[in-house]
Write the structure tokens for this entry.
Amino acid sequence: MSYSEIERQWTTRLRHRLVKVLPPEKLLPDTQPSYVASWIYVFGVTTMAALMVVIGSGCILAIGGPQWWHSSSVGHFVNSLHLWGVEIFFFAMVVHLWGKYFMAAWRGGRSLTWITGVVTFLVSIGTAFTGYVSQSNFDSQWISTQGKDGINATGAGAFFNVLNTGQMLMWHIVLLPIAAVLLTTVHVLLVRKKGVVPPFEEMAESPA
Amino acid sequence: MKKFRPDVDAPVWKGGQRPYDIIKEGAIAILVVTLLTVLLAVVFGSPDDPAITIKKWSNVAPVDFAQDALSQLNGTSETATYGPPYNHASVGQELGPFSIAKWIGVHIPIDSARDFVLYPLESQPPQQPLSSALTQWNHASSGTHNSWVSDYTKAATSMAFTNGKLVVKAKDAGPVPVMMDSLLSMARSGAYDQALVSQKNFYTTNYTLPLLFLEDGNYLSTVATQQHLTGSQWGMMNETGNYPGQAWLWLYTFWYQIPPFSSSGNADILVWGVMMLLTLGLILVPFLPGIRSIPRKSRVYRLIWREHYRN
């Protein structure tokens, strides 16, 4: 096997490409610019930590099945963890979003980082909504019957039926979480690639 | 040299660096958030009000149930007159010249008389007088059906429930009184819940029919009003009890509280139209002159980076 043959392999090319785009020192940095010193930066990692709690508690609920938490005190507690994980997730995410807005964090070629963040927020809203209508209790009866009209008005209700509990549960535990995790991964990798946006400088020297 | 645009370009950082342990930061965040979640779960728990069953509803409010069932039979219920995606009874909501729901069409077909009254009754074991009533109904013309139902509907304005029976003084309603009374008995026994859910199948996870039927009656909204969950009380962003609910939907539910949305027959599509525009705007903030300048002009960033500017 020749050296050039190895270099032409798809795997080798992909590895070179990945290392070039996101070298290890950027992916897992051990230093960061000195301006990254504010409590507002905590909310990004808090959002991700809450996402892990939400996914972990959701996986435990999945083990017992959709009805388990109605009849088991342990299941109800895990549901409580899931609920409060979601509340922390959204609280941290909204603070993170406003913080990034007032930093104008899209500057310096970071528009895609902003866009993936906003789309992750939207997908998360959809994930939470499908969770609320999948609870199989009074809340889900009320929220689904109220929520259907808006979705039906857009025409999407023909394919995304919020009264179809099985369909909503599948979206909640499979499709939307996959989308949310993928988008979060892309978002974080973009942050690592581009770095944290620098402060505004009145006497800027040159564009990035 | 390309002109520097302060709301688009970022200066190159030539200042110092400081140590940063990203793995340690992540581990601490997970630990703290997990502990906080456990604390909140222990202190506050989570709501789980049992679902309303049609059995319970028809026992608590039998006349309300029967009026709902009658509105499905005579085609006046919200579901019967809804339009797409359930039927062609109306065009659905419109956004100016756009009738999106109508264009996409009926994909979840529901015939309210058939699905909410006739199929459930036919799913019951043969028994008199219901079997004779259904035979009479199935052998009559649609004109006769309309005449019977119309007569019963007129008399049902003074519907009562006495000694376990519906009392409706209809003179020429054919088999309809027996059908309605049988449907109520079926509901009060719990068989109607199962008939709507199963739809002649063994396995099912689709609750479209029972949820629509529940919504068409008054009982669900009465309970929701008691729980402060109705649209005028910020609607579906709330959940039962004193829990935060879907607080992130506040802007969506806000529009329903104010004119012209609060009084429009097309409120849902109007609100969605507004929210889609605002969402698009949020996604495109980096490209919107004016909006993208607010952070720099408001100088809120000086609070965020106060240590940097102090140094």
Remarks:
- Strands of chain B lie at 17-19, 160-162, 165-167.
- The first helix of chain B runs from residue 22 to 44.
